Amino acid sequence: MKISHIKIKGFRNLQPLELKIDKEKSVFAFVGANGHGKTNLLEAIYLCALSKSFRTRTNMDLIGFEEDFCALECSVDREDAKIVEVIVIREPAQKVLKINGVKKSASDFIGVLKAVFFSPDDLSEMAFAPRLRRRYLDVLLSQLNHEYLDKLMRYQEAIKNRNALLKKIREKTANKDELDFWDNQIVDFGLYITQKRADLIVQLQTLLKDLYKSISQTEDVLEIHYQSNIGDIEDEQDLLLKITENIDRDIAGGSTQLGPHRDDLQFLINGHDMVYFASRGEWRSLVLALKFAEIKLIEDKTGERPVLLLDDVFSELDEVRQKYLFKAILGTQTFITTTHKEFLDGLKVEKQVYEVKDGEIK
Ligand SMILES: Nc1ncnc2c1ncn2[C@@H]1O[C@H](COP(=O)(O)OP(=O)(O)OP(=O)(O)O)[C@@H](O)[C@H]1O
Ligand SMILES: [Mg+2]
Questions:
Q1: Which residues make Cβ contacts (< 8 Å) with residue 236, sequence separation at least 6?
Q2: Which domains does the chain have, with CATH numbers?
Q3: Would you say the CB of residue 32 lies under 6 angstroms from ligand 1?
Q4: What's the gap between Cα 358 and its chain centre?
Q5: Residue nearest ligand 1's atom 28 by CA
Q6: What is the pTM of this model?
Q7: What mean pLDDT comes out for the span 299-323?
């Protein structure tokens, strides 16, 4: 899959921009000093793929300080040539997603442009935050399967509503039996999400093991374990029972304890949990392996190779891993940012280099 055209207006610090992407080249590098807009550019492309940012949950943050709205557009080079658009408006606050000019829901929008994003921040985040390990699964599954994203969003909504209700019950302004509706939704969507995540882990297992060996250039054995928060559940009835058994604890805490929103992933190297024992270099290898597994699975399952967004990765990768990266991205349309042009020297492909300065891309 390739992007053929990018249009950006009113987005963060970026000047209005139209980039025609040269089909003959596969690497597009954006070079500039700190704070000039490199990551913003990748963020704009990411939004066109996934409808959300990788660094904020607040849509309004995306609009330039002096602007009333921002509009992002990517043309995707595929048979049914598609244009994806994201528009965020300040007043009245809203985000609009469009494909070929027609408004779409997030679950219909995601997946037209497929993208995999890799930044050094992934390293520390993966190591320390279960939320980001879950996000890895969710971002991947959402690009593979519309139904997953749809159910995930409805699940999250149900959790939010149930938690609000739990607090009201605690304050004695609502009744316990009002929980039934949300409990049933949590059971339905929760079981589906758990099942899909478990299936994905099985597919990732061998893929990651092989990737890890070739990236780290060791014989170390990487394993990934899914730590499902609901444990061994037989069926809907079983889960519903567990949830109702826990009700008093939920009410006291004002939040839902049981469900895939509390899932985690565990990574082991030669049987040892990486969270406690892995070095930074081992985390780097893992994150690279996860990203390449993501690309491979998306390609295998959809027949389309996602575009790759690499944000300032050179600062975090040693020479061995940089070489691996350069080899692995051959044939993938790659947008890459860096503060120093020299970092790109090892990349022996036709590349287009842009300069990023004060939000302007030349
Ligand atoms: N909504 C916004 N409106 C205007 N400017 C913004 C907005 N959001 C962020 N910025 C500014 O955009 C600038 C560029 O940010 P960006 O993260 O793209 O920099 P960068 O080139 O990736 O820098 P680094 O090399 O440090 O990663 C920052 O100075 C930031 O303050
Ligand atoms: Mg940056």
A1: 187, 188, 191
A2: 1-114+304-362 (3.40.50.300), 123-302 (1.20.1050.90)
A3: yes
A4: 27
A5: 35
A6: 0.93
A7: 90
